[in-house]
Design a protein that fits this description.
The chain is mainly beta. The chain has two helices and 26 strands. Strands 13, 14, 15, 16, 17, 18, 19, 20, 21, 22 and 23 form an eleven-stranded mixed sheet that branches. The longest helix is centred in the first third of the chain and has 14 residues.
Amino acid sequence: MQTIVIKLRQIASATLLLSAIAASNACHQQISNQQTGVEQQTDVEDTTFWALPDWALGGFERPEDVNPVISPVEGSVFHDPMTDSLVAWESNDTFNPAAAVKDGRIVVLYRAEDKSGVGIGHRTSRLGYAISDDGLHFERKNIPVFYPADDSQKAYEWPGGTEDPRIAVTEDGIYVMFYTQWNRDIFRLGVATSKDLLTWEKHGPIFKDNKTYPALSNGKHKSASILTTVDNGRQVITKINGKYWLYWGEQGVYGATSDDLIKWDPVVDQNGELKVFISPREGYFDSSLTECGPPAVLTDKGIVLLYNGKNHPEKGDKRFNKGTYSAGQVLFDKSDPGKVIDRLDVPFLRPMEPFEKSGQYVDGTVFIEGLVYHNDQWFLYYGCADSQVGVAIYNPAHPAAPDPLP
């Protein structure tokens, strides 16, 4: 697969640079579905500008002087049912956000960690609530709205907590959240529903009662991207071939279907094994992991899935840091959602800013989980180095260039 990259050889003036970027943006509408890479090359201080194919979402631009939009707070405390004590629940890290639109405002539910342990996965995670009129400046609640409680999911969520949410809404206003249940033994995908994003009903692991692949009932699974579409300016959950559709997984991208959004059946191949749609690729930015990101989007070109690619320390793309997480995109057939049509060979978003490369994950992370369509623009929310929350915006009327390559 060709990658279309425009490399600019040393610019003589700022005017030439602006012209080059404008040309790159124009290419966004002209590149065929078979092209995702790099063409016509010239150097600008070792930076490579390139253009996205016409099926992809983006480029996404970080707004100036805004990020990170959510950071840890020491003073937020709540009564923790696990320890029966007050806990500074968002004092260590705030990252990996979901996003939704409610009554014309953007709501972000973000993963927050306390200081109960040392290292990623060894603290307790809960979900905080932030709301915004413009998607950039947020008001936050000082207690979590979703957390490991003394409830029916205790066996799955104590003591690690509730992690890494993704949220989408049905046409009739029911918010559906997929999240990781972490008991520090087995991580599982759980599902919960809400009418207001504040009060949630937990329904348990999504594959618990499946008959298609029973081994997954008590197995490890995480990271879910449900299929959505934009209908009359509103992003909503949609069906394909009469069923709800979900992409999931981190070692590869798999699929699942459902009739009710609560109980899910994994997609299997002719041998009864889990069907893998895409996998890590040696020599690429996604050589170690291909982990599902925010809700997938049905467009006139097909189904666009944004995902998180981890660069393998030895077998990855040498242009990027070892172990770094960057964001990729893949296009699936709209009639056959497991059939890959095209896939980016390079990330459209990668750790570039200081807050994306400093925190508890020092190799650098832009971990995308929240995507909402609001006021004719796409707002993409992501975790920054597993420590803070950032936002990048795609305006279809004036698309920015994707992140340049090193």
